Amino acid sequence: MGQHIKLEYEQIKKMRKDTVSPVDTMGCHLFKDNSIDKSISNFHVLVGALLSSQTKDVILYPAMQRLREKGLTIDNILQMDQSDLAGTIKPVGFYNKKAETLQRICVILRDQYNYLPPTSYNNLIKLPGIGPKMGYLILNIVNGEPHGICVDTHVHRIANRLGWVDTKTPEKTRKELEKIVDKSCWIEINPLLVGFGQSICKARKPSCDQCLLKESCTFYNI
């Protein structure tokens, strides 16, 4: 990691140190549960990642809690009427479509993977609704090892605002960040920047007065 980026990275850590953001208390990493069977825990992380798309953590977490209360297993999801499943996860973004997609995933996991969610990137992104961002998020959480940087809208926005990258899409941002960010930081950079984006560097009306990096920010200096 270049010295300039490293210094800014540490400044973000400093700003995040005393700030609790939704990702810290309701993020997908919390769906990993070491007290239950690993395959079921991995399934919970997979479901959480699927539902997280275009959905805020404060909406996602209660939806996952409701699913858990009904017994969040592959068989239970398949036994649910699709409209009931959609109603359970509502109001996550595109809840009707996600209910359909989740049941399709469950059929694949049952029939092709013997109820064991895949733990390889290539197999994960073959599942309906699971793209690169979710694939890396899932693997980083369930394995606790860096497989790739999970780039969502917060990471994409902040990395471009600070000039770490100059990219148009999250996937291009991921590729560029993986060239310049130490692999040891590949897991932590997502919740670090997501929390920063939720609390200070917001998409609209960011709290620039609270930011230690505003002088080097392209948004602030427009």
Describe this structure in words.
- This protein is 57% helix and 0% strand.
- With 222 residues, the chain is mainly α.
- The two termini are 26 Å apart.
- The mean pLDDT is 96.
Q: What value does the Rg take, in angstroms?
A: 18 Å
Q: Could you name the CATH homologous superfamily of the largest domain? A: Hypothetical protein, domain 2
The H-and-E topology, N to C, reads as HHHHHHHHHHHH
Helical content class? 55-70%
What is the name of the CATH topology of the largest domain?
A: Endonuclease III, domain 1
* Overall mean confidence score, pLDDT: 96
* Number of extended strands: 0
- Write down the CATH class of the largest domain: Mainly Alpha
Low-confidence stretches: none
Biggest β-sheet, characterized? none
The percentage of residues in β strands lies in under 5%
Distance between the termini: 26 Å
Helix/strand-derived class? mainly alpha
- The CATH architecture term of the largest domain is Orthogonal Bundle
Supply the number of helical segments: 12
What's the domain count?
2
Overall shape: it is elongated
